[in-house]
Every structure is written in C-alpha cells, then in structure tokens.
Amino acid sequence: MKSLRISLHSLASSLCLSLAAFVGPAHAEFPDKPVRIVVPFAPGGGTDLIARTLGQGMSQALGQPVIVENKPGGGTAIGTDMVAKSAPDGYTLVIATLAHAVNPSLLPKLPYNNDTAFAAVSLVGRGPNVLVVRTDSPYKSVKDLVDAAKAGKRLTYASQGNGTSAHLAGELLTNLSKVDFLHIPYRGAGPAMTDLLGGHVDFFIGTAAAVSGMVDQGRLRALAVTTPEPSPAFKGVPTVAATVPGYSVESWYGFFVPAGTPAPTIAKLNAAIKKAAHTPDFVKKIEHEGLVISASEPAEFDRYVKAEEARWRKIVKENNIKAD
Questions:
Q1: Is 224 in contact with 240 (CB distance < 8 Å)?
Q2: What is the DSSP string of 148-207?
Q3: What's the pTM value of the predicted model, to 2 decimals?
C-alpha cells in the first residue's frame, strides 16, 4: 500500500511538471520573440525609412529584435492583407499611410475590411505634401497656376498613378480652386519626376520625402505645402490654403495589428512606439521629411483614420477616381 501511494505521488508530480511545461510558454509575457513590421512599399522610400528607424528604437524598448519586411504591390493591399491574416498576437504590425484610408474607396474588391480586420496601435507622425515645379517654370506661386488655368491655359500635373496621394491632392486642388488641372498618371514617382524635370508636365504634389532632395539641389522649386499650417522643414514656403481656402492634405504614418490582438499587448506596442518616436536618432532622421511627431493612443488613431476614410471617400466619388 505504501508503495502504491509513492507511485501515485510520483505520477502526480510528473503530471504537474509536464502540465507546467506545456502551459508555461502559452502564457509567456509579450514579447518573447522578434516582432515584425510589414512595409507595404518597396525598400528605400519614406515609409521604409520611418519603419526601419522607428524599429530600432522599438527594439530597445521591447527588448526583442524588430524586423522590417517589405511587401509591396496592389497599392499597399498585398502587404496589408498579409498582416490582416496574421495571428493576432502582436508580433506582426503593418505601417500604414494615407493609402490605407483611401483604398476602401478605390478598391471595391479589397481582400480585407478596414473596420473589422485591424486594431489601431498608434499614429506616429503627420507631415505635408509639397507642390513643386521645375526651377525654370514661369509659375512662381499657386495663385499663378490658378490664374493661368482660369485664363484658359491647359495645365497638367503628374502623379505616381491613379488613386495615389499625388492624384488625390491634385483633384482636391481642382475641386476647391474650381479650375480644371489635367491629371497625367505615371507608373511610379520616378517617371513622374523625370517628366516634370523635362518640362512635360507643369507641377507635382509629392511627399516631402520624395521632393525635398531635389528642392535642396535647386532642381525643383517648392511653391506651397499642403498642410493648413506652414512646415518648419520648408521655411518661407506658404500653404496652398493661403490661396485656396480649405485645402488640406497630410502625409501620415501609423501602425495597425490584426483585429483580436489583446489590449495589454497593444498597450505595450503603443508605449514602445511612443518611446521610439522621441529618440534623438528618429527625430533627427525625420526632421528633413517635414514630419511632426504625433504619437497617439490607439483610440485616437482609430478616430483619425476613420475621419480620413470618410473625407477621401467623398473626393473619390465626386471625381470618379479609379485605381490603376
């Protein structure tokens, strides 16, 4: 009988140890492995720079490596969809831009639903787009462009393609100024800038990251920024709104995780992003992009994106904009 009791005790102890070993990892504190940021654009652009620079600071805050993975294509839908279908455990984030808010209006067969597929983590920053012309252009201001168009001059503007931020910014300018600027879509920012420099189109409304280098080199002239207030990165450059009241377009960057990610995990990611966004290295690298750091709470970012979706849905519908 004593032997049986000892055997039962040993069996129970073994079961407890086995159960503890099985349950333990499932309750490991987040994060206990590398975190991945999916960039739905090709390497080398402004979004990629933001993700990689911020990822370094996040890694220090989280105590785990933060890996950046580029998944371009589909107007950001390919990489974004990959995150939508990832496990809701906090280990996979997508860095989102204006395209995230515009795509539901442009792409009726989008493979995910923004309202149900994602949970907001944090807005990181907001900044201007910049209306630029070549340096030998006869147009020295937004008023010059508007006045020329009103006088019957057929002015053209370039974009990276239908439905891109440059296209939408141009359509908003057309709507509010009540003149007809002709949109010329290209297959990417590179060809668009080449034709702008070559004098084949009159202007381009690009992100600060896309145009600031050529402005600094004297190859392009900045006529205006698209934010309601002037940008410290473009000193002396007025706003479009100074000529066209009500005009406002922002570039922005923020993070989402798959819907269903636990709230405590989102809170840890949010804290890491906020900490990383205020590191000297990140601040130094984004200053030239005209980005204003706006690290936010998840609910605040969610409201912001929903407002952006509603705003651009109206512009897309009014102008019958179609994606390439």
A1: yes
A2: HHHTT---EEEESSTTSHHHHHHHHHHHHHT--PEEEE-SSHHHHHHHHHTTSSSEEEEE
A3: 0.80
d(CA 176, CA 87): 43
Backbone angles phi, psi at 214, to 5 degrees: -75, -30
CATH architecture designation of domain 128-242: 3-Layer(aba) Sandwich (3.40)
Q: Which fold has domain 34-126+251-318?
A: D-Maltodextrin-Binding Protein; domain 2 (3.40.190)
Strand 118-134 versus strand 220-225 pairing type: antiparallel
Residue found under tokens 């080199």:
217
pLDDT tens digit string along 178-212? 999 999 988 777 888 899 999 999 999 988 878 88
CA-based nearest residue to 148, from 183, 184, 179, 172:
179
Q: Return the amino acid letter for 77.
A: A
- In the numeric block, the tokens 């002709």 are attached to 182
Q: Give the residue among 158, 195, 178 at the shortest CA–CA distance from 318.
A: 178
Other beta carbons within 10 angstroms of residue 106's beta carbon come to 22
